[in-house]
Design brief:
13 helices, alpha/beta, 355 residues, Nucleotidyltransferase, domain 5, 3 domains
Amino acid sequence: MSCATITISLDDQERQALEAQIRTTQERKMADRLRVLLYRAKGYAIQCIAELLQMSRNHVTELLRRYRAGGVAAVLRPDQYKGSQPHLTVEQQQALKIELKTHIYVTAAQVSAWVKAQWQVQYDVSGMNKLLKRLGFSYKKNRLVPSKADPELQRLFVRWFAGLCQRLGPEDRIYFGDAVHFKHNAEAGYAWSLKGEPYLIPANSGRQRYNVFGAYCVQTQEGVFLLTEANIDQDKLVEFLPLLRTQHPGPGKLYLLLDNARYNYTQAVSAEARRQGIQLDYLPPYSPNLNPIERLWKFARKEFFKDKYRETFAIFRSQLDDFFAHLDQYRDRLRSLITTNFELLPECWQSLPPA
């Protein structure tokens, strides 16, 4: 029997009983199932019923067939769905997780091809996407990491840093320092726009740079910044150190943790640090992941540069000065962003095969 020929006829008593049941049914889905019967008895087309009740046409047809076979009780019977059995065994799923952790797969189709080659099990793209999500994987951009980073040195640093924090006096402060070079240019971000009509952001040449040497204290969420058109070198760092001491004129010890840029190790910098009573310590080589101020630079790029055009370098420079001078307005957001919850590299992070 085609769905178009499934008809229902209700006498006045049956219709009134159905209407009363609809009024007393608390669950809307069940009430809508009963409305299907009423509307069909009134001669409504199946497509019209589906649109009125926001059901699929197939679901309306199935409810009508149930009624013809078993009455109202069959219509209200809960659906019995049997979940599909996983195509892969638990052991095979674990093997797939190991494969995905040690090899890069760009598409779900590539993963499906590997699974088929291993176990002769076929997945379509949709099914593989669902499997990967169940296994805890998501599709995200890969991250570049300095190839010479040493996970063991990073772990030793974290232990040393934890000990330093335990020894701090109430007035002592630890700052993380770094230099960044901002180009006079906008950066394109993401936004809702009509299909085929992205927002167009004017761009500059990006040849002029405004450089920043900064130090940030995670304890107090305070920063000290030196902005300059000149290159950041030992002279600029020597100029910066008194600014840092001025921020903390009291008796507390000041620690400044730096990366391994060559100018950070010069005699002039060391001598000025001693004069200012600042102890210099250094991060392991190739370890930007251990420097919380890197997150501040990333925040600045998002907040200051994304989709923002500044016509002249003078305007760009003035507004960047103002951004760092009033960084306190972002204190609540930075407090959760800039922390010493270091993200360490796994021991065998370079185990991916070379191209």
